[in-house]
Amino acid sequence: MSAKKTVKKAEVKPAAAKPAAKKVSAKPAAVKKETIGQDRFYAMVSEAAYFASQNDGNKKGSSEYWLEAEAAVRAKFNVA
Question: In whole angstroms, what is the distance from residue 41 CA to residue 48 CA?
Answer without folding.
Answer: 11
